Description:
There is one protein chain. The chain is an alpha+beta fold. It has helices spanning 20-24, 26-33; strands at 10-15, 38-43, 48-55, 58-69, 72-77. The protein is built from 2 helices and 5 strands, in the order βααββββ. A hairpin with a 2-residue loop joins β4 (58-69) and β5 (72-77). The protein is globular and about 40 Å long. The relative contact order is 0.17.
Amino acid sequence: MAFFDSAPDLVAGILSPETAHRGLTTKKRIYEAHGVKEYWIVDLESQTVEAFKRDTDRYMQHARAVNKQQGNCHVGAA
């Protein structure tokens, strides 16, 4: 089994109704504590993507994309 000495720069998670709470709380805290620079959360139900970036020791929302129509996506800075 291989282990890494540092955290990845980016982790992306896809939420489902069963995993949404865990992805938004537990996993986010774990990645934050281990130094992951960016955490993207893809929510298929609400058709959104949220991008969080580390600001010193915690995540701040950096951007949010919302699918306003099928096939189109609106991106806005947080």
